[in-house]
Amino acid sequence: MWMKHAAGLVVWLLVATVSLGAALQPPPESSAVTSLAVKLFEHAHYSHHKLDAESVSRFLIRYVEALDYNRLFFLQIDLKEFDNYLPTLPDRTRAGDVQPGFDIFARYQQRIEQAVAIAKECLKQPMTFDGNETILIDRSKAPWPANEAERAKLWRERVKYDLLQESLNKTKPDEAIRVLTRRYDRLLRSVREMDAGDVLEVYLNSLCHAYDPHSDYLGASQLKDFEIGMRLSLFGIGAVLRSEDGYAKIVSLVPGGPADLDKRLKPDDRIVAVGEGDQPPVDVVDMKLTKVVEHIRGAKGTKVKLTVMPANAADSSVRKVITIVRDEVKLTEQQAKAKVFELPAANGAPAKRLGVIELPSFYADTEKMRNGDNNFTSSTRHVAILIEKLKAQKVDGIVLDLRRNGGGLLDEAIALAGLFIKEGPIVQIKDPRNRIQVLRDEDPSVTYDGPLLVLVSHISASASEILAAAMQDYGRALVVGDSKTFGKGTVQTMLSLSAWLQDVPNPGALKLTTQKFYRVAGGSTQNRGVIPDIIMPSSYDVREIGESSLNNAMPYDEVQPAPHQNYGSLNGKLTELRQRSMIRAATDPEFTYLNEDIARVKQQLKVGTVSLNQAKRLEEKKATTDRDAARKKERHARAASALKFTEITVGATTNAVASASMPRAAATAAATKPTASSKPADHDTTPDADGDDENGVKEPPTDPLLNESLSILRDLVVLAPPPSGTAVAATPSPR
Question: Do the Cβ atoms of 679 and 290 come closer than 8 Å?
């Protein structure tokens, strides 16, 4: 019955007029930018690989996947048609011709329009949820639909899945249809909002990823966001925005920012127009969120005039004009921060005070550093301040938490490693000509020489791996965490294209892989990552996360070791530390929960599909609800034994609070892409989940990995004496 309906729907789609409007044309700068990008890849990229038939084949498939990652829109006939570009694509791209990318995008827009039409038509049809149907959620490795009828079937399954999800969330049928209609309209709007610059950026990024997964093209907007992320500051009003039903909605205000201090702008207010100083306001309803952001940001001391729909207004026609003076906004929530934990005596182990420093990235305001501003932002400077505060708190040891740290500035990683050792090599760098350069910490001073534990995860990447590897090779710290880190062992150089294209306005930049880095012990972290001394269970271990899962990743290799010190912080106690940790983990209820969750994830990944039978899904949901309720009850029963901690920031220390531990890290895989519907105005945070259940009862925060790391560090404090530097020969590390 459905296939008959699908066939009729396909015929309707074939004869319908697609409401696309004029196809996008390449922007004026595209030819010069593309031609230069190819030259830089062929001559400056680590591989020095020519843009040939092999690389353009990767280029084309990367572009198609970037547009249609889950393989729901294009048809196999489209892919065959796109293959016709391959014979001429190297020469056309080298000459700066990007028309193939825009032709493919036009087809993509058409397929999106058709898919949304199918989805909306499906919403009009009655559906039952009592059969044996299943849906493959992740279709990234599945074939593209063979024809229109197969695509219609896929979208019927997708709509049925979405309706079932809403039903399971107790959304009424009519409201569920409205919710999904708005969702599909947002999908359509996000594609229609893409301008020529956006398409060029996706196309050139696909060219970059044909060489390796970490080279990127950054258009003017993306380049600005990258610079903000490195210096943790910007000039604006300090508001986080989200796109919702065509409006730029205030999600939150940055503490201490101009909007926060002004007090008139509130969360959930919606911005309808933005004016610059005394200029007439620009209507921003249905405007792409990145464009709204560009209107709001501006130079320090200038005025921005916002016309908003107040969230608390009884009448939706009410408008309020708020003028705010732009100023520097410090993104302090992304800075390093610390806590002091009080571990009471237990099971014969003595009470200890232990510090935890959470470092989300290796950042620095390099412009202020170059200009001699002593108040510059720097991850090394901030960690040094926090260490001094922890020492003043008389901590017995420190955990450096890098679980959410995806990397950052190489110089910062080297400088930060120098806080824990006397001078010496930190990392080795190899260029395309196989020349080796040893990058060293030249400062003989040591900020902290006490017991140190480095906590890592599969998300810890690049600069994080350099630091963790150096601490491990020096025997300076115990590395604890997932089975391995991300495995990114390459170095990127940011090349501003304006240096070559001075007559082209805002040509963007190329983040180009130009070197590979190696541990002082000689091995690379590329693909393999850093293997912790003590491995704890992690759900990341059963997922495809890391360099080895990325397309076109560079291979592992080794270089000769560099002579370095051995501080002997483990002092032959590693076996005992592992055994003690295993005993604790075997009896810790949180690790029992974690292992149960890992087993379920393994099974879900093995099956790969989700049932569309409502009774079965309700049964699964009830099992999940009952399990979570039982865990919550058990956690509340254990709340009396919660660890006490004191929060410490770079600028201040707060009062002690009680908690089971820090909340579990909400890390995001490096391969994850942001959605088109959500974009912060001034920085890239999103609201945290509150952890409440339906009755408003808060779940005690849990982080068994951090708790166990603290116990391991206490063992290290008790078992191992303070480190002392002794030279070791330049021989490969057994790790």
Answer: yes
Residue whose entry in the numeric block shows the structure tokens 């006397």: 422
**Secondary structure (3-state) at 239:** strand
**In whole angstroms, what is the distance from residue 351 CA to residue 717 CA?**
11
Find the catalytic residue in 206, 252, 462, 709.
Answer: 462
Distances (CA, A) of 72 to 139, 544, 640: 8, 21, 50
- Is 679 one of the annotated active-site residues of the chain? no
Residue 338 CB burial class (10 angstroms; 0-12, 13-18, ≥19): buried
* Collapsed DSSP state (helix, strand, coil) of residue 211: coil
Kind plus residue range of the DSSP H or E element containing 492? strand 490-496
Instruction: Report whether pLDDT(456) > 70.
Output: yes
Three-state DSSP at 475 gives coil
* Residue 488 known to be catalytic: yes
Partners of 541 in the beta sheet? none
- Cα dihedral 291, 296, 301, 303 sign: positive
Q: Judge residue 517's burial from the number of C-beta atoms within 10 Å of its C-beta, 0-12 exposed, 13-18 middle, 19 or more buried.
A: buried
User: Taking the model in full, what pTM does it have?
Assistant: 0.82
Least confident range of 591-600, 610-619, 625-634, 644-653? 644-653
Select the more confidently predicted residue: 291 or 38: 38
Find the catalytic residue in 249, 488, 511, 516.
Answer: 488
Give the other-Cβ count within 10 Å of 294's Cβ: 16
327, 365, 473, 715: the catalytic one is 473
Q: What are phi and psi of 341, to 5 degrees?
A: -100, 140
Which residues in 41-55 are b (16+ Cβ under 10 Å) and which e? bbeebbeeeebeeeb
Question: What single-letter DSSP state applies at residue 497?
Answer: G
Domains of the chain: 2-211 (no CATH), 233-330 (2.30.42.10), 334-486+522-665+701-728 (3.90.226.10)
**Per DSSP, what are the bridge partners of residue 397?**
354
Residues above pLDDT 90, as percent of the chain = 64
pLDDT digits (tens, 9 = 90+) for 208-224: 999 999 999 999 888 88
Contacts for 154 with CB less than 8 Å, ≥ 6 apart: 72, 139, 145
For CA atoms 327, 330, 331, 333, the dihedral sign is negative
Nearest alpha-carbon partner for 461 in 382, 553, 381, 568: 553
Identify residue 91 by its one-letter amino acid code: D
Q: For 527-577, how does the pLDDT look when each residue is reduced to its tens digit (9 = 90+)?
A: 999 999 999 999 888 888 899 999 999 999 999 999 999 988 787 899 999
pLDDT digits (tens, 9 = 90+) for 59-69: 999 999 999 99
Close Cβ partners of 631 (under 8 Å, ≥ 6 residues apart): 593
Q: Catalytic site residue 462? A: yes
Mean pLDDT of the chain: 86
**DSSP E strand stretches across 1-153:** 134-136
Which residues partner with 138 through β-bridges?
none
